[in-house]
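Researcher: Please predict.
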Amino acid sequence: MKIFTVRHGQTDWNPIGRIQGHTDRPLNDVGVDQAHQLGLRLANETVDIIYTSDLQRAAKTAEAINAHHNVELIRTPELREINFGIYEGRIYSEIAHEMNHHHSLRQPFPGGDCIFENFRKMHAYLDKIVAGLHQNIIIVGHFGTVRAAICYFLQIPTEERDRFHIDNTAVHCFERGTDGKFVMTLENDTSHLSSWHSNHQD
């Protein structure tokens, strides 16, 4: 079994560190181009099915990938970003201390989710994906989605999620060995964006 996880392309809120969560922001022009480059990057991979968050920034990224495969594309709220409640729309650097306080107490964000509970639910959904009939899978989601998937596939505690950085349209790959365990064979790969960066230095 081979599973790719992908973070969505850039939105206008990403470069300024504005928290999105369940806020349904569209891809900006950069994000659309990133998604196109990502689609080309994955065009030659064997893909049986694609799962994506139903938020448009992820769904549009998934559509750019599926343009090269034309397989079943499942949109689901199960793969959404964490609901950050009252912090959505705020600049992360300005309220990080408040959010970290909720982390430390394992509390939900006011009006939103608890990260630990969010990861538990996402891991339950990943159980269903892994138990399915498909062997070559792409999962498109968000920063939180991909970090939850890393913890799931590598069987590491949610507390270790901050070890991993996930860039826009970054690709991670997990392959299951004969022992039934997954190994991460690709981490935060954005090599497909090199051509974009070389032509957009401003």
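Model: Confidence is low (pLDDT under 50) at residues 196-202.
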